[in-house]
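tool=predict chain=A
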Amino acid sequence: MNECLENPGVCQNGICINTDGSFRCECPFGYNLDYTGVKCVDTDECSIGNPCGNGTCTNVVGGFECSCQDGFEPGPMMTCEDVNECSQNSLLCAFRCVNTFGSYECMCPAGYVLRDDQRMCRDQDECSEGLDDCDSNGMTCKNMIGSFVCICPPGMQRRLDGQGCTDNRKGYCYTEVLQTMCQQSSTGRISVTKSECCCHIGRGWGSQCELCPLPGTVQFKKMCPLGTGLHHRRQG
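tool=predict ok
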């Protein structure tokens, strides 16, 4: 007996397959048999796992639909996959585009930062943003396009290692300073460098009466790494 021919509607929403002594119902994609075994009902794919991945699943009759989040698009299996915005648009960033999960980031070369639009680059002013170390070496920061340089004060020369300045200025050395006024010269009116003065017995130096750092301070150790007693070099 062929039950499928005898009762054409025996399988609701499905296909009847005749078997020896019986029959079975098979359901199309997106349906499954209910408890009766003869009725195909819609399968709620959204309730089974996470078919959309990074998106929102909406069940429809016989299937499902995915609404992907920004930065994602449906892949071959309908699952929302990351969009590589960088490969889709080579002009997205001014310098370099880096794809991220669900988005992208624009990168700038060293010495530059992103503008407010997060796409174009502008020069980074390391000096005004305090990213330089010039002050620690007694130097002044000067911003350059894409970089910066440390400049020595007038009369000073940059050290070969770039870690400070050599003070080559010449001036009189004073052993007494009263209220920031230099009183008495100790060098017999012979001009010496500031380190030659301050590392010996000087208290003030030069036409502007620059005060010598006190022994034991960081400034003194930096100026006089060998300690006190460094005699000035006499000229003439």
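Residues 47-82 form a domain with the Laminin fold (CATH 2.10.25). Residues 218-223 form the longest helix (6 residues).
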